[in-house]
Every structure is written in C-alpha cells, then in structure tokens.
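Follow-up to my post from last week.
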Amino acid sequence: MNETHALYGWLAEFEHAEDLVTAVEAARKQGYRRMEALSPFPVEGLDEALHLRPTRLPWLTLLGALLGAVGGYAMQAYAMQTDLPVNVGGRPLNSWPAWLPITFELGVLSAALFTVLGMLALNGLPRPHHPLFAVPQFKLASRDRFFLCIERLDPSFSVETTREFLQSLRPSGVWPVPQ
Amino acid sequence: MSESTVKAPAAGAEVIEPGHTYATVTDQISAIVLAHQTPKSWWVGFSISLCFLMLFLYSTAYLLVTGIGIWGNNIPVAWAFDIINFVWWIGIGHAGTLISAVLLLFRQTWRTSINRFAEAMTLFAVACAGIYPLIHLGRPWLFYWLVPYPNTMGLWPQFRSPLVWDVFAVSTYATVSLLFWYVGLIPDLATLRDRAKWWPAQMTYGFLAMGWRGSATHWHRYQVAYLLLAGIATPLVVSVHSIVGLDFAASVVPGWHVTLFPPYFVAGAVFSGFAMVMTLSIMVLRMYGLHDFITPTHLSNMAKVMLATGLIVAYGYLMEVFFSWYSGNEYEWALQLNRAFGPYAWSYWMLIACNVLIPQLLWSRRVRHNVVLLFFISIIVNIGMWLERFVIIVVSLHRDFLPSAWGMYTPTFWDYAQFLGSIGLFMTLLFLFLRFLPVISIFELRELVHETSEPHAAGTPS
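User reply:
Got it. Predicted complex:
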C-alpha cells in the first residue's frame, strides 16, 4: 500500500479562530471542497466560509411537533368519544378544550425528541471512532486550537501540493492523518 | 451560543474576569472533575447529603411496606405534604429552564456561568417532585395506570382531568430538561474525553461524548438544535406550572377556585427557582473558588429576578384577598379570615414575612452585593415558597364548606422524614454532578472569552 492510500488527509493547526476562517476561505479559492474545519467552540464566519447550506433540522422539529400534537389529540378524541365514552351529567363527549394541554405537551415532547435525535443523525453521531482522533495534537481541538483537515478524497488533493498549500497558510503545524 | 453578536457589558459589570484564555477556562473547569484532589467541603457536604438520602430510602421503604397511614394525611386534608413537596420541587426546577432557555433567547451573556448547574438542579428537582405524586397514590406499584396503554380492563386515563394533564406535563418536562442538559454537555464531554489521563474516565466520557469532534458542520446543526430546544422549552416551562396551578383552580375548594392560579404559580416557581440557584451558586462559588466565572454581576442579576418575581407573587397574594372579598362569597371570605387568623395563621404571616417583606431588602444595591445576606435571603425565600404551598393546600382543605367536615392536620415524623430525605436525594445527586461533570459550560466560556477579548489575544497562552 503506498503512502497516498494510507492517508486520510492533511491536518493544519491554527492558534486563532480568525486564522481558521481565513484558511478555509483560501482553501475554497484553491478549489478544495472536501474539508472539515474543527474548533473548540462555534466560530462566527466559518459557516459562510465553508458555504454551508442552512440545515433542514427545523423542518424535522416541525414534523415532530405536528406528529406529536396530531397523534396526541387523536388518541384523546378516540379514547374519550369512541372507546370509553363516559357521560358526566350530559356534558358533550367532544370536550376538545380539555384535550389541548395534553395535545400541547405531546407536541413539545415529540418536537424535542425529533430535534435532538435529528441533530445527532444528520451529524452522523454517535461515531466512536474517526481518523482525526489518531492525531495526538487533535486533542487540542476541544481546548484552544483550531484545525483544518483537507481530505484525500478531494479531487484536487495531492499529497505534496496540499501539504505545501497548508504550510503556506502559516499554521502552527501540519500533520498527516492516517487512514 | 447565539450571544455571538453581543459584546460583554461595560467594565464594572463583568460576567467573566479579564485575562482568561481558551486554555485557562478549559483547564480550570475540567480540573474540578479530572484533578485528583476533591475539596474537603465536598466530602462533608456529600456525607451529610448521603445521610439524608438514607433517611429518604428508609422512610420510602417503611411507607411501601406499611401504607400511607404512617403520614398525617386525613380527610379533609388528603393532599398534605406530598403535594406541597411536589409543587415546591417542581417550582424550583423552573429556574433552570428559565436560565437556559429564556435567557438564551434574550441573549443574556451572564447566563453562561450558571446555566449548566441550574439545568442540573432542574433535573434533580423534577426527579424529587415526580416521586411525591407516585408515593401519594397509595399503591405506587400501579403507577403505570396513569399512562395510556392498551390494557385488558378496557380503560383509559380521564384525559379531561388536570391531574392527568400533570402526568403528561411533568414527564415531558423531565424528558425535555434531560435532552437540553445532555445536548449542552456533549462538547464538554468531548473536552473531558480529550483531557482525561485515566482510561476508564476516557472511555466513559468518550462514550458519552458520542465522538464529538467540533466540526463546523456539526456546530452549525448543534446551534440550530440548541436554539430550537430553547424555543420549545420556553412555552413548555410556562405550561408545566400552569397545569400544576390548574390542578387546584379546576376544583371548587375555596381558595383554589381562582383564575389567577396558573400565572401566579409560574411566577412563584421562578421566584423559588432563582432562590435555589442563588443558594447553589454561592455554595459552588465557595467550594471551588470560581470567583472568576460567577461574579457579583451574576448574583446581583439573580437577585433582581428574585425581586421582580417576588413582587408578582406579592401581587398574587393581594389579589387572592381582593377576589374573595369582591366575590361576596361567604366561603371564600371565610377562608381568607381563616388564613390570617385561624389555627394556621402562623404559616400565613411567616409566608408574608419570607416572601413579601424580607425580599424587599433586595432593592438595596449593598444587599445585592453582599454574598452572605444573599445566601440567607435565598434560603428564606425557599422556606417562604414552601409555606405558600402549605397555606394553599392545608389551610384551604382543613376548613372548606360545612363545619361538620372540618378537621386539623398534623404532620407525623414520617412526613418530615420523607421531606428532609428528598432534600438529601437532591443534594446527593447535585454533589455527584459537581464531582463528575463540568459545573460550568466550558465551550460557552471559550466563546465568551472570544467575544470579550481583543482579536488574537484569547488564543495566546498565559
């Protein structure tokens, strides 16, 4: 197996959030697309630099809310009118105002579950292992350093030129990420 | 999080001491969990809490084998301590959600240092609250009858009853609070995973962090999810205590049948919750010396929220009296007289002292900056809010309509044991949380450092 195939990509380390944003912009200009910017907190401007499309997550939340609310209301309407009608002094069986609190609560519950599980699923988590974790320096990505990883699968990737390109961005270090 | 466009307030109102870098905030907070030296005060606090937890387990076990006859509950006062404690605990929980969700939506930077343990407090308070209605059932092993499930009896819960609404409200609240807390923890669990030296700690935090690596795409969805959760939790928190209020208001008991109850219960919940957050922040501040992160600004802001919600609660007390006078209903008016001058008058006047009079001290800037006074006021407010539920439940029930149905209520040893025991459960969980999870959101502190420092200064090692 030659060196190219043993490589997942190159990882460049930066000390400042702003440098990472600049580096991502430069890499985009250079034609790189398959790259990942990693930071210890959400950095303003990275989304724009990476040309990230807004996530579809809010639609999932809405779907969850509707499913929960409609399902909750249907359950109560069926139970109280059809399956177990209880005549309380001749009051109407279709007592919908009394069903609204549970409809609301089930809508909220389902929306929250869809939001959290949807966020994890779209992010591909849980993912216990990732090639980046093999780089010892990467531990600092959850402390105070900012990283840019250009993946080998990028069409413009070349072991030498990509490394040189990353070096030209003046990072505090460039590391190979083993496959 | 979303406060990214907001700069820190002007000097003199710092929400974080100057001079911190990403590295120092990360190291200082994660060291609380990962460093080997656990402070002596932690051991003392944990041991005392554990004793009370044992009392809780003992009184619960005795209750299960004997029955609820061990309590002072009777007819007319059937709800008694259980529902007092339930409402008290669930109310305390509300501040956690308020701090994490509502202050996030209002972009208040000062929430960062206190939201994590306020959320933990919510979870543990809801856990304590949830126990009471269950053990009050008399046959708690049949608790699942409260949940709609296909059963051979062909029965459904009565969905028109506020007590059934409560089951859904509280269980939704517990689940959403847990999700909110856990989502907030994920990036910090990754930090702990990367900084732990001992392999079982690496494995545990690694498992819980689910492979979080801080990718920009992940952060993007994460922030959207967090904002959505905050948006969902805000109406939820209002609904939960409103429904608790409706448990009372939907009945015909004098003193309960008031339209004021839902909003007044929500204000009371926030009032008591902030008092508990205040008590706990002062405790954490002293135990771990977190003066750089929990600053006088935090305590003073919390005191202001307490003062505001306390005034709403005081307005509620005033309106209760006015409503019953203005209604011209003799039972309602008799109840007010009974509250103020009846056999339980001491509880009403103590409540007024604790919740209305003493919090007025918070108007003074000197009081709001005096940690010792704030600590005592917060405890007094918690006592006052417990008394409020005592007044609402015991005093309303013990003399309702016909004098032949009147009675008196005296709590027994087991009532007190169960109550003090639940405080033990709460504190034990809280001490374990302090020991094993980051007490302050580390990544949000890093963000705060980024926003409040000069460009390029934050990353430089100190």
